[in-house]
């Protein structure tokens, strides 16, 4: 009973970290597990307050908040996109290559599909193969209900066109290890923006 | 008794985990969470010619039957929601889902206060909060075209837009002089109140209303800006009610709040 | 032969050398480094006042702070209207900068606005005149910077869709970009801007009047006024000057629809900077001001009297409000204007000039 005064603030913090955003019921158990790993309070600006369950290109389920722990380069795209999306992937690849060998592995890369109805984990795996992206890249398929919320916290705008293609903001978002957005780079070509690269390196140095 | 908080962390976490999902307001809504004061109206679907034209080849789009709340969510209903989901209080919501104006006009973090009408639409709520409220009710925010479809009706006609006089009055939408601004304004033929009222309302897909800040001379979308370009035009330039609403919503950020922006929820038919 | 051409050649050579030096002198004007420009907070004024003439002789960084607010104000006696304004007035605040200035423009949209607004300044060379950079939600501030490349008197207005409605509700004003050499000094400067308004009720119908889109599209205004309301420049609000003073009026036309035939009854414009540009016409009675355009008129108030500003599409002046007064006090000058000299009977007979002879 003596611990009780200490519990409420801690409990409240954990409740906040855990229970904030109503997501699919399946996410709840996994989210509890993920949040248990968080021994300290999640920063208010972190996008990981959003509860969303995703499936990667190997068919493995994970929680959005599982990406917490190292800086992440995140973008949203879709597999059937032949205009900007290949450039987004190439741009991210080129940016990663410009990092020194030692830093490369410390940057997480996550590509999230806007079209979970058609982009199955298998389709994501094929994109990974076609683009020869590094093995530790994650291609993530969210639940249908969660696409809008993920796009909102990442400030990605998108619209489904009648022919099934998608107009969307083509952007690489840099998150710090806690999930706070640090920088954005509008993708206009395959060459990474040098100013954005500098911010990626600064984020990796800070996460040391 | 010595205080050793660290070893006691594990049972603390376990205790919290046990009540965690309940605090989360699980997506399958608990029976006690449904707000009985919310009235739902059925809107039968149909082919609809939106006032907004993207690059579609077809002139009309199908709108599936759905349900819409008869009135916008009120201060009282949102206060009750905060009792059930206190993590959405302005003093507890994390910064990523908030902004300085969020429920700033309420007297306390949990109550609107005596100076606000409990039955007036709640305003200064952002998209995240509105979306969370709707999800708890087993619902969602309406799409822009669903709003437009329901708002095309007047008291007697499902599509009154051919009536120019009726449409011209909608230039005052979003102001106290709006056609449905009065609390006792008649509902439309679906039984829905206040669609052309003094308040704008969030839609679920507001961020899909792709547009640029200066729309003059914007017939060709920049093909790279939104990966494939988006051409947008209004079928009737004189449909100021829809133009104003579209322009306002398309500029919003999900965390934004406005003093005349509220919301209501929609439900898809199974 | 040689003797005759030699002086000519010498002159030509001298001229060429002089030209080279003159060219160098002009080119040697210090290219202003934006980082070293003095920073000036612009003083904006409400109509009919104009900020003081600019006295500095070099570019500066001028900071403009302009707030947009929607407010119900008087349109006519007993008639109000929900105006949308820049700076709380119709027309909006007058902005005065100098050719070559770097202008840092901050635009605020008051929290009580019911929707977003932006600004298009005709003085801006750049996308939308600034409109694409200033899409401002209620309760927020946007900023952009532009260089005032061209001198002249320019209209600014809101360009938020539906654009015509924003302009029709009064969101316009004037920005003056003084030429580098400045304007000639005058005794009085005034800010006058015409606008047409479209109300649901008839002209004169009392109460809060709503905007009539139908009348706007049909271009049939109920009110045509100077400075945002009937009588804004009459009675106690009349413009005032003294006889003998040199007067300059910065006259704009916000529209949204009508062109103005601007005339001051009893005066002749000594100079009209046509359409607010660099060249002037002289000795003009009535000048055309396009919708979304301007003119600068200058004249000396030689004699005292009440000089009536009108849009000479005359029904507008007397039935819709396009009328203002310039009250000039001073000594009569009967050699210029005598007032009435006689009023007598004259013998009856066949009408002179009669066709029926």
CATH architecture of chain B: Alpha-Beta Complex
Mean pLDDT of chain B: 82
Tell me, rounded to a whole number, the average pLDDT of chain A: 82
Total number of helices of chain A: 7
Radius of gyration of chain A: 18 Å
Number of strands of chain B: 9
- The rough form of chain A would be described as globular
Q: How many domains in all of chain B?
A: 1
CATH superfamily of chain B: paralog of FGE (formylglycine-generating enzyme)
Question: Total helix count of chain B?
Answer: 6
Give the number of domains of chain A.
1
The termini of chain A sit apart by 39 Å
- Percent of residues of chain A in beta strands? 15-25%
**Major β-sheet strand ordering of chain A:** 2-1-5-4-3-8-9
Helices and strands of chain B: which structural class?
alpha+beta
Note the topology.
The complex is a heterotrimer of chains A (208), B (270) and C (357).
Chain A: H1 7-19, H2 25-36, E1 53-55, E2 61-63, E3 72-77, H3 85-97, H4 101-104, E4 108-113, H5 121-131, E5 138-142, H6 147-154, E6 158-160, E7 166-168, E8 171-175, E9 181-186, H7 194-206
Chain B: H1 9-24, E1 40-43, E2 46-48, E3 52-53, E4 61-63, E5 66-69, H2 75-84, H3 127-136, H4 144-151, H5 164-168, E6 200-201, E7 233-234, H6 240-250, E8 261-262, E9 266-268
Parallel strand pairs in B: 6-8
Antiparallel strand pairs in B: 1-5, 2-4, 3-7, 5-9
Chain C: H1 2-27, E1 39-41, E2 61-76, E3 79-86, E4 95-98, E5 102-109, E6 120-121, E7 140-147, E8 152-157, H2 163-168, E9 172-178, E10 188-197, E11 207-209, H3 213-218, E12 223-226, E13 239-242, E14 246-255, E15 260-265, E16 269-273, E17 280-284, E18 286-289, E19 293-300, E20 305-311, H4 314-320, E21 323-329
Parallel strand pairs in C: 1-2, 2-5, 3-11, 4-9, 10-14, 13-21
Antiparallel strand pairs in C: 2-3, 5-7, 6-8, 8-9, 10-12, 14-19, 15-18, 15-20, 16-17, 16-19, 20-21
């Amino acid at each position: 009973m003596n611990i009780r005064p200490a519990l409420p603030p801690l409990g409240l913090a954990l409740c906040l970290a855990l229970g904030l955003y109503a997501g699919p019921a399946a996410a709840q158990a996994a989210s509890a597990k993920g949040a248990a790993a968080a021994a300290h309070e999640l920063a208010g600006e972190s996008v990981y307050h959003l509860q969303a369950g995703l499936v990667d290109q190997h068919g493995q389920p994970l929680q959005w908040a599982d990406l917490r722990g190292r800086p992440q380069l995140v973008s949203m795209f879709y597999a059937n996109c032949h205009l900007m999306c290949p450039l987004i992937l190439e741009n991210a690849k080129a940016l990663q290559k410009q990092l020194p060998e030692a830093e490369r592995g410390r940057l997480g890369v996550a590509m999230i599909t806007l079209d979970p109805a058609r982009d199955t984990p298998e389709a994501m795996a094929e994109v990974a193969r076609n683009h020869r992206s590094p093995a530790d890249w994650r291609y993530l398929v969210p639940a249908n209900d969660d696409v809008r919320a993920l796009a909102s916290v990442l400030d990605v705008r998108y619209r489904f066109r009648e022919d099934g293609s998608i107009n969307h903001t083509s952007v690489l978002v840099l998150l710090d290890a806690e999930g706070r957005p640090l920088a954005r780079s509008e993708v206009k070509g395959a060459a990474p923006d040098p100013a954005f690269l500098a911010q990626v390196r600064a984020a990796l140095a800070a996460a040391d | 008794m010595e205080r050793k908080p660290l070893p006691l962390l594990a049972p603390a976490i376990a205790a919290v985990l046990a009540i965690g999902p309940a605090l989360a307001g699980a997506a399958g809504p608990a029976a006690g969470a449904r707000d009985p004061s919310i009235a739902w109206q059925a809107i039968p679907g149909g082919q609809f010619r939106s006032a907004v034209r993207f690059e579609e080849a077809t002139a009309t789009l199908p709108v599936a039957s759905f349900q819409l709340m008869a009135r916008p969510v009120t201060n009282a209903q949102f206060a009750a929601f905060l009792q059930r989901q206190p993590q959405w209080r302005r003093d507890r919501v994390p910064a990523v889902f908030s902004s300085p104006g969020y429920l700033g006009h309420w007297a306390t973090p949990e109550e609107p206060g005596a100076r606000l009408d409990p039955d007036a639409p709640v305003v200064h709520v952002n998209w995240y909060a509105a979306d969370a409220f709707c999800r708890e009710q087993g619902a969602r925010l309406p799409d822009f075209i669903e709003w437009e479809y329901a708002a095309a009706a007047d008291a007697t006609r499902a599509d009154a837009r051919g009536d120019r006089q009726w449409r011209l009055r909608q230039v005052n939408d979003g102001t106290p002089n709006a056609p449905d601004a009065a609390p006792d304004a008649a509902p439309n033929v679906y039984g829905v109140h206040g669609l052309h009222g003094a308040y704008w309302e969030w839609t679920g897909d507001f961020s899909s209303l792709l547009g640029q800040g200066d729309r003059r001379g914007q017939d060709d979308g920049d093909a790279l800006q939104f990966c494939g370009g988006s051409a947008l035009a209004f079928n009737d330039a004189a449909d100021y009610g829809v133009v104003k609403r579209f322009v306002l919503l398309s500029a919003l950020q999900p965390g934004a709040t406005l003093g005349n922006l509220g919301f209501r929820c929609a439900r898809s038919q199974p | 032969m040689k003797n005759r051409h030699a002086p000519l050649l010498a002159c030509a050579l001298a001229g060429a050398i002089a030209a080279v030096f003159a060219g160098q002198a002009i080119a040697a004007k210090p290219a202003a480094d934006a980082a070293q420009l003095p920073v000036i907070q612009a003083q904006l004024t409400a109509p009919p006042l104009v900020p003081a003439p600019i006295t500095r002789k070099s570019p500066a960084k001028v900071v403009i702070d302009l707030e947009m607010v929607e407010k119900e104000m008087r349109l006519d006696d007993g008639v109000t209207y929900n105006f949308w304004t820049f700076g709380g007035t119709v027309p909006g605040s007058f902005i005065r900068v100098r050719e070559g200035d770097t202008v840092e423009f901050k635009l605020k949209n008051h929290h009580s606005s019911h929707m977003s607004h932006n600004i298009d300044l005709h003085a801006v060379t750049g996308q939308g005149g600034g409109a694409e950079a200033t899409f401002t939600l209620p309760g927020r501030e946007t900023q952009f910077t532009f260089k005032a490349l061209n001198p002249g008197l320019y209209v600014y207005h809101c360009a938020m869709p539906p654009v015509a409605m924003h302009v029709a509700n009064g969101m316009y004003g004037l920005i003056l970009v003084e030429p580098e050499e400045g304007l000639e000094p005058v005794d009085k400067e005034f800010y006058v801007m015409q606008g047409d308004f479209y109300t649901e009720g008839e002209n004169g119908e009392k109460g809060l009047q709503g905007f009539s889109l139908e009348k706007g599209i049909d271009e049939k205004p109920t009110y045509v006024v100077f400075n945002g309301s009937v009588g804004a420049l009459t009675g106690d609000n009349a413009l005032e000057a003294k006889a003998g003073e040199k007067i300059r009026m910065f006259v704009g036309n916000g529209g949204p629809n009508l062109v103005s035939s601007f005339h001051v009854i009893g005066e002749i414009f000594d100079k009209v900077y046509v359409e607010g540009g660099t060249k002037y016409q002289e000795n003009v009675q009535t000048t055309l001001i396009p919708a979304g355009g301007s003119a600068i008129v200058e004249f000396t108030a030689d004699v005292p009297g009440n000089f009536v500003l009108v849009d000479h599409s005359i029904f507008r002046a007397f039935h819709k409000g396009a009328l203002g007064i310039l009250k000039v006090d001073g000594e009569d000058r009967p050699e210029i204007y005598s007032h009435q000299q006689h009023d007598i009977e004259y013998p009856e007979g066949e009408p002179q000039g009669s066709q029926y002879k």
